Model the fold of this input.
Amino acid sequence: MIKTLLNTAWTKYRIVLYGLFLFGLWAGGYYATGALAVGKEPTSMMTPIDGLIPFVPQFVFIYLTVFPLFLVPFMIIVDRKFFTAFGSAYLTVMLSCYLVYLFLPVTSEGFRVSEQVLYSVDDFSHYVLRLVYHNDTPYNCFPSMHASLSLISALTLWEIHWRYGVLGLFACFAIGASTLMTKQHFIADIFVGYALAMLVYYVYFKQRIIDALPHRYRQLEGAIGTAIDERITRAVERTLDERIERIVERKLKSRSGKDSQDER
Done:
């Protein structure tokens, strides 16, 4: 009993440590690739629709919830195989984004709100957003790691329990909206970030999805099978009834013919 508890505690301890390691890798890699992008000629993903999205500085608080959402799965997962798939998904998303940042730097300069606007209002939301702008490089935009990592976290929480997943997905999409409202990302950054997360999620959780399908759709399959069986049974019964009726008619005609010959 004690040995089992110690093994469970040690596994949980290592999972949390690995979570902190990945968190450090996320931050370190993000700032490193941003520093390497300085001096390059970045491109912009801005569209006319991006210009129509309003600036709402209060969304900066939702924007920052990506950090606790990133760490939540590490506090819940206890299964080693499940954790390996989840941790590998996080790592793959990070490395994929870093490669794009290095070879295709996309900037939000010129799209972000100017310092004049940020300093024009002296409230807490503007103050926090000023800190975000000051510490966040404007080059690592495409794809959005806020979008991709938050969606991986939400889908992982869904694998643990659908109620966790619903909350995670709500937080994920709220974070995606916050990156637009704070002028940190373009729409293309968010959608490509979500697409990357879905692809990586499928690669690492494909077998779990396949294994879950029979369980989730067993009732539907049973209902469809029952409906098909009933249709086949009714069709067979109709066919048999029609054949029996034809046989009976032929027998009756044959008998009536014999009777008429006997009378003659």
